[in-house]
Amino acid sequence: MKEPAMTHQPDSQRIGQPVRRREDLRLTTGNGRYADDVNLPGQAYVAMVRSPHAHARIMSITTDAAMATPGVLAILTGYDFLADHLREIPNKTFSLHPAEQPLVNKSGRPAFAAPDYALPADKTRFVGEAIVMVIGETIAAAKDGAEKIAVEYAVLPSVVHTLAAAAADAPLLHDGSTSNVCIDAEVGDEAATSAAFSRAAHIARIETWIPRVTGCPMEPRTTVAQYDPASCRYTVYTGSGATVRLMKDIAHVLNVAEADVRVVIGDVGGNFGTRGAIYPEHALVAWAARRVGRPVKYRCDRSEILLSDYQGRDLAVRAELALDAQGNFLAMRGSNIGNLGAHTGNFSMVQKGVEIMTSIYHIPAAHFDVRAVMSNTAPTRPYRSAGRPEVIFVIERLIDIAARQFGFDRIDLRERNLIRQDQLPYTNPFGMIYDSGAYHEVMRTALRAADWDGFAERRRQALGRRKYRGIGTANYVDTATGVPREKAIVTVRPDGWVDVVIGTISNGQGHETSFSQLVHEWLGVAMERVRLITGDTDIVKVGGGTHSGRGMRLASIVIWKSADAIIAKARSVAALLLQMPADRLEFVDGCFRTEAPGRSVGLFEIAAAMAMRDDLPRELQGELSAQCDEAVDVASFPYGSHVCEVEIDADTGVVEIVRHTAVDDAGRAVNPMIIHGQTHGGIAQGVGQALLEQCFYESSSGQLLSGTFMDYAMPRADDFPFFDTIISEVPSPTHPLGMRPAGEGGTTPALGVVINAIVDALSGFGVTHIEMPATPERVWRAMHHAQERARH
Question: What pTM, to 2 d.p., does this model score?
């Protein structure tokens, strides 16, 4: 027997090869399957009435005029929500991964988790919070009705800034609480840290605020839902980072069994963490479908997105780094305060940041106070590399500050204190165990690729053009954990297809390509014959979705083990078909071959025999299929080193990034092309925050002043040079295939490396630090204030 030629593929599709993304043709030619492409017969439309106040008690809602509007079908409020016995949005306060270090209140009491209702009945807690839902025959009718809703508010004092929200006299967001501080913990060893500081020759200090940003995915949030009264079942079509988790959360809010909710997710036009969790509208639209007895659709306008999407970052930090006279790091200490916004949806940004405050440097002792506070702003959630870019920014700025203040070379100081390979695995002062890495070599590779030694001449030439040129470097480590459990079901079909059912969701990461490369590598079938099946809870029963670098890291394990089980089962069938002992068969390119030339049988033929022949043993009849359901209880630690070079215009303060070099370790690269692309996107997101982006709330009113793209400055293509990205491959010993995640590496060091470069460019003025975003105005003022100080 001979296998069809389709199973024999060139090495260009194997793991490690830069295979072009299969999904791109479909996505770029209008053939994607996004939530807004879903339209159901007879569907109605939703418009939300959102609060114009940051903090106000809801005194009354008058709907008479709105209900009289032609085409309005129903109006639902928080009172209706409670009357139907719907429940609050679940709080996912901490990361539940076994490798994470828990945060425990100093008092021993549990962290405060405020109830979060999809439509609040008592009061609004941020500008843009949904208060009333209007359902209409058309979107125009729904919006017309929404404009006629009259809400009487009793405006209350508000607080938006992180430090102000933590103050003892701050306005309280939630009745019954005594403080906006919902977690007040400490990590590390206070006594050892204090002792180290007492013998320090030098202490570098920073007090900074990493401002708030938002994800701005290309695809607006959209949800379409229908309710079947015969089965009492909801079907929800939407875009998100997870199906199973979203299904569970919607069922919780609707107060129904999980089996009564089906979630369907097709293509997703961006996530970055801000689309990784349930939104109020996911449950509200499903509830509306039941109330009006027909399908209901909601699509968020861009102005609503900027108001009500989950936001990210927002960390106030005070930190100190102790050094001896030779520049050896002795200890680190400080305080981190994370701003969760109006609701306690997730603490993990604070948790996952503080546990790697010391990065990949040998710092023997550390101690940090860690608090999370609520404020009258949109809720925050994990945003690309949640919590880690903030703390890497802090440690990398501290190192540069120490070098300049105490006369050390920036590179020598880093090299002296980086964790050596012979120290790995290494337990940092907070208990996180770094598995492996070539930290020194990665930094040296980045410096060589960026021509660090040739910078002085480039700076001299720039001054001749009235440009101030600066260069900066930053090393980083990331923590990849996420939901630890994943499952794959791999089935070889007799018709020449291999189906892979898995609980991850592609939000642009190229799973359709890279997962098919895995199947090609292990089963020898052409990538074009692999079908990736995700995003439907009627099919996918287990899976953690896509977040925290878990997609390829976990999918590779469960697909690999499923493929191994398929080969083992198929070998037994092949032995019967070829009349040869199983141990004398070789599996190559999707075929089992005998030693004698010309005798082979392929997987698809074996699948057909198992499906059709009744003379096989019973255990070898049926589908050629296998599955793996596994929990991974160890964290992964991607790392790398970036170098950024900038030029600053002397007259305007405009910062131009002229070079950006990145070396990121992926353990084992499945598809280098995709990794390079993810690194490019990650750099753009980090640089965007460093130079341009900020969710700006006015302090006295709580109004969001960056509510459109006229005010929220997104980076554009002409803000960047061509990036020089390099992949390092030091296998991870905690992953059976040596892989590390690669999707967040571009973002994690970007804040620190860009600001380090800008401060270096301004060092001639005596500027020692600049806050983000480093806008032209802020840079110009820093130069001129420094000149004023010098004159006086």
Answer: 0.96
